[in-house]
Write a structure and sequence with these properties.
The chain has seven helices and 21 strands. With 431 residues, the chain is α+β, with helices and mostly antiparallel strands. It folds into three domains: 81 residues, OB fold (Dihydrolipoamide Acetyltransferase, E2P) (Beta Barrel), CATH 2.40.50.100; 65 residues, Dihydrolipoamide Transferase, CATH 4.10.320; 213 residues, Chloramphenicol Acetyltransferase, CATH 3.30.559.10.
């Protein structure tokens, strides 16, 4: 019996998605949860797994075509999966059906530290686009990596295990974890790659917006039209937090296997303030304010093509270490396009780091249907007045953009004062 493959909804406010690549072609066998196609929305780019095992018999939506969520994009013959040895007759795709086979590739580059394959042996490798990107980044020979997936398919987990093994052998590969923050800025997300240089063919050059930029533009305009934005800025001393990071950073990394960054401190401070001021953790539905029991913290992650906002669910129930792990995990999988649908949904408050490149003060746009967003500027040492004397302290500007329909300035300032007090007088153990 045919199984319909539908366009998933990758966020609460996402109504459509674009298929950017078919990993399988008509006639291919596909296993349940095996990557089937790639999509792009304004919230996330992701590989979509197959909902069932069987034979891909029809592709109904071609590449670069945008359709509404819940649209049937393909069909899988589940009965054909019962006996993979049987030949399966499938219709050839119509001219407008775009079909791509799953990549069976030879490695693009070979690591200088990896042993060469045996003479005369050239093994084809089954892998996903994410794995191939990792191979290019770390100059890996995929033929040297044992795949644990179906049919010897190499997964991201296999690559990470290989990299760890090489490091233990004294052949450390390029770093793959979240980088440590520089003194100038918190490391909520790594810096995106520098855009490619423009090639001019005349006095002007017209380039269409990418899908992600077009969708981001639509959402940002919608948010500004929906919410009357107001911003309040607070200067916060980060000396106490900086001292903790300097004193315990190495021990934290040795114990937990991840670098200590500023991000978990901001998340914990925001969670503490949201508990005290639940109206900031709400949304507006007509004439009603909807208060949210769970605190689901969105963390804006910068990509080469834009921003996405994965969500730490029930951040108020996590420890400091749990938040640190969640931040690294979500940021890494967002860049690798491996986020699940639920991981970009149900956010109740968002933190955005505009200080990565040295920006001191910014006014981020509210992520609908939320009512506020916290902007984090560059963290740097500045001269300040303490006890009638000039002192050097580690400082940061925090900005709260809020929806004036729901929040007044007094409540917004009290909320920010709570965050300021938490960061300046940090008393929570981080070990």
């Amino acid at each position: 019996m045919p199984v319909n493959v539908i366009m998933p909804q990758m966020g609460e406010s996402v109504a459509e998605g674009t298929i950017t690549r078919w990993i399988k072609k008509v006639g291919d066998r596909v296993e349940r949860d095996e990557p089937l196609f790639e999509i792009s929305t304004d919230k996330v780019d992701a590989e979509i797994p197959s909902p069932a095992a069987g034979i891909l018999t029809r592709i109904l939506v071609k590449e670069n075509e945008t359709v509404e969520v819940n649209t049937v994009v393909a069909e899988i013959d589940g009965e054909g999966a019962m006996d993979s040895a049987k030949s399966v007759s499938v219709k050839e795709p119509a001219p407008d059906e775009t079909t791509f086979s799953e990549s069976l590739i030879k490695p693009e580059t070979e690591s200088a530290s990896a042993a060469a394959p045996p003479s005369g042996a050239t093994r084809e490798v089954r892998s996903s686009p994410v794995v191939r990107r990792m191979a290019r980044e770390h100059q890996l020979d995929l033929t040297q990596i044992h795949g644990t997936g179906l049919g010897g398919r190499i997964s991201k987990k296999d690559v990470l295990a290989y990299l760890a093994a090489q490091k233990e052998k004294g052949k450390p590969p390029a770093a793959i974890t979240e980088p440590a923050p520089t003194p100038a800025a918190p490391s909520i997300a790594p810096s995106p790659a520098v855009p490619s240089r423009m090639t001019w063919s005349g006095p002007t050059q017209t380039v269409p917006l990418t899908l992600m930029r077009r969708q981001i533009a639509e959402r940002m305009v919608m948010s500004k039209r929906t919410s009357p934005h107001v911003a309040t800025v607070f200067e916060v001393e980060m000396t106490r937090v900086a001292e903790l990071m300097s004193r315990h950073g190495e021990d934290f990394e040795r114990r937990n296997g991840l670098k200590l960054t500023y991000t978990p401190f901001f998340v914990r401070a925001a969670v503490d303030a949201l508990k005290q001021f639940p109206v900031v953790n709400a949304s507006l539905d007509g004439d009603n304010i909807v208060y949210k029991r769970d605190i689901n913290m969105g963390i804006a992650v910068a990509l080469e093509t834009g921003l996405i906002v994965p969500v730490i669910k029930r951040a108020d129930e996590k420890s400091f270490l749990g938040i640190a792990r969640a931040v690294r995990d979500l940021a890494g999988r967002a860049r690798a396009k491996r986020l699940n649908v639920e991981e970009v949904q149900e956010g109740t408050f968002t933190i955005s780091n505009h200080g990565v490149f040295g920006s001191l003060i910014g006014t981020p746009i509210i992520h609908q249907p939320q009512v506020a967003i916290l902007g984090v500027g560059a963290i740097e040492k500045r001269p300040v007045v303490r006890n009638d004397a000039i002192a050097i302290r580690t400082m940061v500007y925090l900005t709260l953009s809020f929806d004036h329909r729901v929040l007044d300035g007094a409540v917004a300032d009290q909320f920010m004062s709570r965050i300021k007090a938490k960061l300046e007088n940090w008393d929570e153990s981080i070990l």
